[in-house]
Amino acid sequence: MNKIPIHIVTGFLGSGKTTFIQHILKNDQNAKTLVLINEFGEVGLDDLLVKPINDSTYLLPSGCMCCTVLTDVKDTLLSVLDLNKDSLVFDKILIETTGLANPASILSTLNQDMHLKGRFALHGMTTIIDTQHAPTQATTAPEWLPQVIACQQYVLSKTDLCQAGDMATTQALMHKVNPDAIQVQADDFINMQALFAKTFDVLPRPTFFLKNEQDTHAHAQSLVLTFDTPIDWLAFGLWLSLLLDQYGEYILRLKGVLHLQGIDKPMLLQGVQHCLYPPEHLPASIWQDDVSRLVMIVRGLDASDIERSAKTVLGYLNTH
User: Fold this and answer.
1) Cα–Cα 20 to 30 A to 155, which of 57, 176, 238, 262?
2) Where does the CobW C-terminal domain start and stop, copy by copy (predicted)?
3) Is residue 218 part of a domain?
4) Residue 214 in 3-state DSSP?
5) Secondary structure letter of residue 309 according to DSSP
6) What is the CATH number of the domain that holds 12?
7) What are the tens digits of pLDDT across the range 217-276?
8) 262 and 148: one domain?
């Protein structure tokens, strides 16, 4: 009996994992790929962005691919076997981990769980590397190193936004940390079949790099800012610019969908630390309501202070 291959896509917060998955799914005519997405925080957003491309996309509960989340991964995979009893529903599985995940937990589960290893095969791991921020993340984010050490291949993202020399610096860093990993281009993967076409020898990595530290994200907080009425973009942009300018190094990622005054289409907003990327207009709301939601993951900041500042500043600017 053929085992169902599982490929893992990992990478630190804001590296571009969801964009990478969207890229390879857009041209994928094979509806037999199951996509599992794990996010850190109480509100999931990435699965809603992928869902229009692939209906078989599911959000795993908040966490970092450890503890309860791994139980849900196992239960979901076992349910796939039940679905495949009469006909082949899924022949490939893609798992996107949260940006704060240490891959040790999911790798150990897939390789050692007696109920899974006989029916599923770990195909490989691709790590998405933020070319701009990798040197900083390597020294400030404890999750970055295990994600790089564990992969067989990596993709450098946001190369179009780099300064001269950034790519060479990041490539040298990658070679130092994981000289066996292969650099690949996102455009090499035109669909899911292309991602799974390459065969990897999934070798164990040095265990001291892949300790299953379930508390590596203990000091990170997730907060969700919600706005029930359309947002004044000038006021919001001023507040966000001030926030990122002063506290950007503590804001690991921000992502949200905003409904703006005088604009029909909702706007997708994304950023990493001090960097705010050009907003994108979505064809329609991904929520079932018109509430704006901005999800932030921070470390070293009190999430309640950010929420209070947003309400205070935006409330003041909207009334003056």
Assistant:
1) 57
2) 220-314
3) yes
4) coil
5) H
6) 3.40.50.300
7) 457 777 888 888 888 888 888 888 888 888 887 887 788 888 888 888 888 887 877 777
8) no
